[in-house]
Amino acid sequence: MKVGDTHYRSIWYDSDKAKTMIIDQRWLPHEFRVVELDTLDEFATAIRDMWVRGAPLIGATAAYGIAVEMQRDASDKALDAAWELLHETRPTAINLRWALDEMRQALGGLSEGDRPAAAFRKAEEICDADVETNRLIGVHGLEIIRKIAATKKPGEPVNILTHCNAGWLATVDWGTATSPMYHAVKDGIEIHVWVDETRPRNQGAQLTSWEMNSHGIPHHLVVDNAGGHLMQHGMVDVVIVGTDRTTATGDVCNKIGTYLKALAAHDNNVPFYVALPSSTIDWTVEDGVREIPIEERNDREVTHVFGRLEDGTVTSVQISPDGTPGGNPAFDVTPARLVTGLITERGVAEASREGLLGLFPERRSAA
After folding, report:
1. Which fold has domain 2-128?
2. Are 37 and 20 in contact, with CB atoms under 8 Å apart?
3. Residue 30 needs a FRET pair 20 to 30 A away by CA distance; which of 77, 144, 253, 335 works?
4. What pTM was estimated for this model as a whole?
């Protein structure tokens, strides 16, 4: 997608510099910074400390991390150690393990001399595939928005509520939940987006709002607790969110607060869709609430807020009393019964085992 007049991916390899480049998302929306990642430890830090975030982008970053390490040491020992180091950075997003497994499988049978070049080719392949996957999610999600738009009066927008950031900043390009929005605008459909702030990291306020601004999409930033009120008053036509892990039975694990939005949508008969690449499906998990590990992050993210002061200084400030600890579960699980449908690169599936297997029949033998 574009920043100003320049097209960017969220991660790319700069062949002139021979460096992997990322948009350092910690500074958005106040500063746009592009940084180089040079070592395996820097890739691990970028994932763990959320320089990059979003399940697909985490996976892509890990793939390039493996590739960079293979330039330093292409041995089996180094490959296994890099896999372990990167895998431990974020436990919830399944794309991380998926991408690492893809890299290890691609490199496992190669000689050490062939591994560095092959690793970069595979990382680039993972990134290119992510872009096309998210484009197709947008194509299928567009049909949902188009049907709602057909029920509207002339000039009346389709009101979409989203939670956290499942935009192009969370993927290599296009985004998951935002891809249908971008496609709708491209198709000439009027939309308006309710952007949840998404405490405690405020990815909605800082990132989704920045994306909407950058692409001229009408939107309003709302506090996390406003969603139910908006739905009660008929101000939300559809909810579209992303997911960091989806079970084989259709449960979805997404940013903390998603479950509450799903409950409100269910109570007010508002369609609740989840947009996801198939790499986010964990076919080994049946019960999301019981089986998906929920990342518990530093309590400072709860007790402090990052932002820009009136004098332009970008900093963090404490909002809680000294001595008050913060609890910080980063994700929650929305049961399949609350999900209207799963928007994938192959189409829209019912949130159930049969629904998913209908789009991915090759998984039946493993089911």
Report:
1. Four Helix Bundle (Hemerythrin (Met), subunit A) (1.20.120)
2. yes
3. 253
4. 0.94
